[in-house]
Amino acid sequence: MDGKPITKEVDSMAGREVELVISEDNTATFNLTQRVSSWWRRRRKIQNLNGRIFVSGFGLFADGYLSGIIGVVNILMRRAWPKEYTPERQRLLTSITFAGIVIGQLGFGWYVDRFGRRNGMKASGIIIIVSSLLTAIPFPGPIPRIIDLLATCRFFTGVGIGGEYPSGSVACAEAAALRPEGTRNRWFIFCTNIMILGGFFAANMIPTAVVALTGEHTPDQCSNAFHILFGIGTTFAIIVFTFRRFVDEGEQYEQARKDRVEISYKTVISYYWQSLAVESFIWFLWNVTSFSYTIFAPRLIEMIGTPGQSLVQVFGYTACIMMFHFPGAVGGAYLSDRLGPRVMLVLGCFCQTLMAALLAALWAKVEIPAPAFIIIFGFFAMFGEAGAGNNIGLIVSQSAATPVRGKFYGVAAAWGKVGGFIGTHSFIHLIDSFGGEESKWGISGPFFVCGGIALLTSCVGWWGLRNVKLDQKSLDNRDREFAAFLEGK
């Protein structure tokens, strides 16, 4: 024997070929280094499909927390720095976050189609970790300069949050498409919208405990509280980034990359402009209402509550409202597989319209007790999640082919965030235009407007999406249709 391999076997544990070498003295040896290292590399990867779906969408939990925490932080910063944290600076801090999110959605939409969903998730995660960590550090110096530093960091946090939409959500959709038919929609919703809701719920529940521990009676206590809250968001982002290191690229994107298909934004808009316009408009309308009442929920609780109530009570009531989101999201996820995302979007938004009208009419006529207000408000939010909250991202993810899915999703999500920006900044002016915080119509009027927007969303979804073919095989169908379009050019 000359010591060369004479047979090859497949290692059942690593799934790779292992060489069996017989030397001149008839001693048989395995290439153990290759065997062990191959097994270890495989062990480190998340091979389970459900795990891949979960980890791809898990980043949206951290994003939901870091987005939702700003409503609580605004209250704490007003109490910590009542003179320096002016309404103009408050609007700046909120606005610059939205600007960062839109830039991240558009930029990462191109990035993930060019370099991969996995690389997009890693890049956005690093941006979120660094920027949110800087907001958690209590830097010394003049307070106006500290506020400007926080605004700068929140801009980059927004860029990272925006990057999660075309990277994490698209990766989640492509992984969910590999599950058995009849379960794909619910898995996407579980790992995207419900993750975001979990982050928003944590952004309302965690402050209750933090403020109870730090106190709320001095500026230093309030300052410590919001720095701790930002630090908790950094911890979530680090956990997400750690798990995502073990996720491989999806099969659909790998195939598209092998085909070396690179498509510009111009081609995406020219081919998909109709569905992109309708879905972007729906996402815009949904975020006008959802962001406004979610971010300003603590403020509404302050307005309807008893004078002098503590922040622990305010945050606790707000967390109770957030709990209503989950039954709507979970139940709506299963119905989305049975009825389809278009029907559920329309049905959920119509029911939300009814709840908004009921809440506004009751409050305008009689000042109902705070618990009753919270319950009706909770049903209003619950139907919204079962409708547009669950299904608009799902519909967008199923409407474009793999080579352009990141760009398509990024553009639609960016229009959604523009709606969120408008809703957030117009809500206070809406309250003032209906008589202010001391007036009954100051609370009822904005809910009449939100109900009208929900009704418009329902109508646009019913008629505007009737030509968008959505089923359990939508991703494969979009790939075939787009390939035929490219061949015909």
From TrEMBL:
Keyword set includes Magnesium: no
Matching Gene3D superfamilies: MFS general substrate transporter like domains
Domain of life: Eukaryota
Topological type in the membrane: Multi-pass membrane protein
Localization terms from the record: Membrane
Keyword annotations from UniProtKB, A to Z: Membrane, Transmembrane, Transmembrane helix
Lineage: Eukaryota, Fungi, Dikarya, Ascomycota, Pezizomycotina
Record-level GO cellular component terms: plasma membrane
Ranges for domain Major facilitator superfamily (MFS) profile: 52-469
TM segment ranges: 53-77, 92-112, 187-213, 225-247, 268-286, 314-336, 343-364, 370-396, 408-431, 443-465
Protein name listed in UniProt: Major facilitator superfamily (MFS) profile domain-containing protein
Source organism per UniProt: Tuber aestivum (summer truffle)
Pfam families (alphabetical): MFS_1
InterPro entries: MFS (IPR011701), MFS_dom (IPR020846), MFS_trans_sf (IPR036259)
